[in-house]
Structures are given as structure tokens and as C-alpha cells.
Design goal:
Layout lengths: L2 H18 L21 H10 L5 E2 L6 E2 L1 H4 L11 E6 L8 E5 L5 E6 L2 E7 L6 E7 L2 E8 L5 E9 L5 E10 L13 E4 L2 E3 L1 H12 L2
Parallel strand pairs: 1-6
Antiparallel strand pairs: 1-2, 3-4, 4-5, 5-6, 7-8, 8-9, 9-10, 10-11, 11-12
Length: 210
Amino acid sequence: MGNAGLLKMVLFIWLHFLMGYESANGEAILGLSESGFTAKSQSEELLDAFLAGEIPVFYDDEEKSYWVYDWLWVDEKGYSAYSIGERIDLDNDGEDEQIINGPYGGNYLDARDGKVYVLAQGGGTGGELFFTHYDDAVWIVHCDITHAGRQMYWLTRYDGDGNIVDEFQFSAEYWGSPDDRYDENSDFTYRDKKISMEEYEALGKEIFGW
């Protein structure tokens, strides 16, 4: 066997060894398990621990906290019921946050710095919670669209540390409208600037997919 063939054989054996070798704590080298899947991130592990009732979720000031059993399956069939939702990257950091479905849009939970925090929560009929994809980012939205005379949206973009990096209001106000609908004479706002009805509807389609 020539030198080239011998080198190929040595490389093959070495790579095979690397992929199959496990460290003393049982974690496969290169972060791969025997099944070929990457290990869970710390963020995922923290969210799993919260859902398992092992750790609480905190608000930013850490003076107030909840456990999973404080939320889930209370009045299971009623409007106030909570349930485990999907995981989506809501703060644009490449890691998924946990959605807890519930009243007024529920709660969005973010794992960071070794704990789980409430990133956002529904704020009643004047602050329904949802999220949207806009301008190459995910925005968390609170809205008031069920009361007369207004359609109000407050959009917030977060970073991975729970900080607000951008926010703005998008709204239509039509107080005193006889049919409770906006028209060309209504007051439209986008990022603290007055806009036309046509601009409002075009932006609504771009931001929310109307």
C-alpha cells in the first residue's frame, strides 16, 4: 500500500474514532449523541424544567414569580384556561421562547442567565398579545382593537437579553364615527408620524398581512 493509501486509512480510522468516542460524562464529542442529534441548549433545558415544575418563572425585577401549576389547566375548558403552546424565536436571538396560551394572548417566556423570565404577557382587552414578522425581525404586539373609536397597535422588538431595541405605535383613531369605522378623515399614526388612510392600510398589510 502506498503512502497515499496509508494516509487515507489513518484519517478514516481517526474520524471514526472521533465520531464514536464519548467523554467520561457520557456526552458525545462534537456535541453529537449516538442518535446523531445535537444536545439540548441551556435555554431549552430551562424551559423544560419550568414546564416540569422544577423552577419558577420570574418577572424582570425577580420579586414576583409563578410556577407552572399556577397557570396551567386552571378552568381548563373556560376562557381563562392556560395551555402549553409552541416555541418560537420571539426576541431575534436564534433561540426559541416558550408560548403559554391563555387569556388576552397568554404569556411569552424567555430563558436567559440561568433563569426563565416573562418576556411579555397579555394586558387585558386593551392589550391583547400576539407576534408578527416585519422588517426582517419578530415583533411582539399588544393591541386594542375591540373598543369603539380606535385600532391601536404597539409593536416591540427585543434582543436576547430582554432589552427593548425598538418600539412604535401604529394606529387609527376615529372617535365619534357614526358607524364606528375609520375613513379618510380619521387620525392615522405610524412611528409618531401622521399618515394617510391609504398608507395605514398598506402598512397594515405589510406588518400584519391584512
